[in-house]
Design brief:
Length: 260
């Protein structure tokens, strides 16, 4: 079940804890994908907190928001790039997107396989996607006060297995949100410290998982040519084989002994 877009907006833009989460996840996203010119970047779910660094340099930025969640205009003070869509039918042509970010769009969907199928369809050859999901072992998935406490949390193995089933190749995986999901002043002030420690300490469990995956593109098979070679045409069957003959006389013409 998708969360309401107003609840998501209020959390990320109007609470200190939401701004902490936004900054921690966005830093990991830009580490994976530094902003580059000429790319089409799309987000699905509620990925707009992660898309702002790409507005200045990308050829195009599109924020897809599923119907059950609702849509809001974004970014503030600029031309709107957010679009309301069906979660199983995105209004993008096949192969249109270079980079795709999915946050609050997979774990809350009632049709995760269809979401992954659409993600695979809209990516171009060699396109990459980042999937941000709640960590099954983390504290954030156990608290209803944050958006990561809703939907189905994942482990790394579960998410990567689901991606492979839909023709994605997982490339890299990291965790984020190592500070507890608390509004306490101490935890909010030390959130950046915990993020730095968590990236170096394997014993700390992050609240979300971020998996980068590449679209698999299979080489086309040459079935028609192979079938033709295995089943050659037999148009000359039944005709007599050629018989060698001796040449008589001189000149370029050859005759058989019993006639021309």
């Amino acid at each position: 079940m998708h969360l309401d877009v107003l609840d998501l907006r209020n959390f990320y833009y109007r609470t200190q804890l939401g701004r902490v989460a936004q900054r921690a996840i966005r830093d990991q996203v830009t580490t994976f994908w530094p902003p580059a010119a000429g790319q089409t970047v799309a987000g699905f779910g509620f990925a707009v907190p992660l898309l702002r660094p790409y507005l200045a340099t990308s050829r195009r930025v599109i924020a897809l928001m599923p119907g059950p969640q609702g849509v809001m205009p974004w970014p503030a003070g600029m031309d709107n790039v957010s679009v309301l869509c069906e979660e199983t039918a995105w209004p993008l042509t096949t192969g249109f997107v270079d980079r795709l970010v999915v946050m609050h769009g997979l774990e809350t969907s009632e049709h995760p396989s269809a979401v992954l199928a659409e993600a695979h369809r809209v990516l171009g050859p060699g396109g990459k996607a980042l999937f941000v999901v709640p960590n099954r072992s983390g504290l954030w998935s156990r608290r209803d006060g944050t958006p990561f406490g809703f939907g189905r949390p994942y482990s790394i193995g579960q998410l990567e297995a689901q991606l492979r089933q839909h023709d994605f190749t997982p490339e890299r995986a990291v965790a984020a949100l190592f500070a507890p999901p608390s509004m306490g002043r101490f935890w909010l002030r030390t959130a950046d410290f915990w993020e730095q420690i968590g990236r170096r300490a394997p014993w700390l469990v992050g609240g979300v998982l971020i998996v980068e995956a590449t679209k698999q593109v299979y080489a086309p098979t040459r079935g028609t040519l192979a079938a033709a070679m295995r089943r050659p045409l037999r148009v000359l069957e039944g005709m007599p084989a050629p018989v060698p003959s001796s040449k008589i006389g001189r000149g370029p013409c050859a005759f058989r002994k019993d006639g021309p």
